[in-house]
Write a structure and sequence with these properties.
This protein is mainly β. The chain contains two helices and 17 strands. The protein has a five-stranded antiparallel β-sheet, with no helix packed on it. Strands 3, 4, 5, 8 and 9 form a five-stranded antiparallel β-sheet that branches. The chain has a four-stranded mixed β-sheet with strand order 6-7-2-10, with no helix packed on it.
Length: about 260
Amino acid sequence: MKIGKIMILVAALTMAWGCSSDDEEKLEGSTFIASEKPKWLANVMGNDDKPQWEAPDPLKYESSMFIMVKLEQRLVGVSTDNDMMTVLINGECRAVPAVRQIDNFNSYYFVLKVRGNSKDRDVSFSLCYYCAMLRQLFILTGEGSFAAERTYGVEEDYIPPLFKGNTKFPIQFKQLIHLPENAPFNQSKDDRVAVFVGDECRGQGEPDYPFYVFCTNENETLQVRYYSAEKGGIYTLKQTMVPTKDEERESTIAF
C-alpha cells in the first residue's frame, strides 16, 4: 500500500514538473533571471589628483583675453568650491587657475584671464576643468589663435560641453532602446534598461528615452540588460554592440 502511494506521488510530481517545463518562456536572444528592481548606475568617479597648475608670469606675455565659462548642467550637481579651471596653450598654463563663482541665477561659472602673445597663432588651446567631487579631469582641446583683449562669455553664455572631455570615458554617446513588437512582456513605466561592459554599468535609463553611455575605447563590447517590472526580473541580451562615434544611436532589442 505504501509503495503504491509513493508511486502515485512520484507520478504526480513528474507530471507537475513536466507541465512547468512546458510553460517556461523560451528565449532565443536573451537569458532571464528573477530580480527586484535594480539600482543600476554608471560610475563616473575618477582617481585624478588635483592638478598643480601654476599661474603664468604676466611679464612674459604681451596681452590677455577674458573668458567667462558657465558650467554645463550635467556637471552642476557634482560641482563644489574645490573645483578649478584653467587654459593651456601648447600645454603651458596661460591662466590663473580659477575657482567657482555663483551668479544671481545660481549658475556656476569660472572667469579666466588668459595670457598670450601675437605669435600664438594656430596653437593648441585646452580648456581644463577639475571636478573635486568626481576626482576627474575634463579637457577640451582645439586649434586656434590668441585674440588679444577679447572677451568671451559675457554678452552671451559660453557653455562648453566639458563632460565630453572626460579623461576616464573619452567616448560618450546617447543610446535609445526600443522593445520589439513581440516582446515577452508588456512595457511598464517602472521598466529600466542599461548598457554593461562585463559586470560594469556604463549607462542606464528608461526604454524609449535616450541615456548616456560611457566607454573607455572603441573596442569595448557592450551588452544590454532590461528589467521588466511585469516579469519581475532582468533579461540579458545575447547580442552585443560596440561603441559608436555618433552623437546618438537608436536600437531595437530582440529577446
